[in-house]
Structure formats: C-alpha cells, structure tokens
Amino acid sequence: MTETYEVDFGALGKVEGRLPHGACLSEVLTIENSPLLFGCRTGICGTCIARVDAKGGTLPPPTEDEKDVLSLLCPNEPKARLACQIKLSADLTIEPIKLTRD
Known about the structure:
By secondary structure, the chain is an alpha+beta fold. It has helices spanning 25-28, 64-73; strands spanning 4-5, 7-8, 19-20, 49-55, 80-82, 91-96.
C-alpha cells in the first residue's frame, strides 16, 4: 500500500483526498483543488512561496537553487518554501506568504 498524505491550508481549507508519497505539489495541486497559486512551477518566480510545516515527519531540504530564491524573496522566514519544489513525505500545513514589493 502506498503511503498518502494530507495537505491542509488552514483557514483556506484542505485538499480533498490524500496525496501519494513522493508526489510533487506542483503536479498534483491545481487551481481547482488548491488556494495556493503556482506561476512558473520551476522554482524561480516565487508565486508559490509559503510557510510549510510537516506534521509528524520531515520534508526533504530545499535545493541550493530553492535556497537562493528563498534568501532573496523571504530571507527572514525560516519555514518558507517554494511549494512547487516540495515532494510529499509528510502531512503538510501550508500558509501562503504574500510578498510585498518595495
């Protein structure tokens, strides 16, 4: 049996159903089942930046490229991740981060 996970957007709701282990969020979440928007889906635009908590598990660490984008867009948020780069390995709580442009 394949392990599955829940994705919870807090006050914005939960993804209906459970998602398979190893699934990339940008491939299984769409405008119909997610309040989180994805832009480029390659990890360079920052549209899907969010605070991510793994419940009862851990996520793979961000790649060096993801770290570079996060350090530019959200340097003071330790739980920030680019949701398009996350492969499921735990239940998640995701809170989209609104970036402010100066």
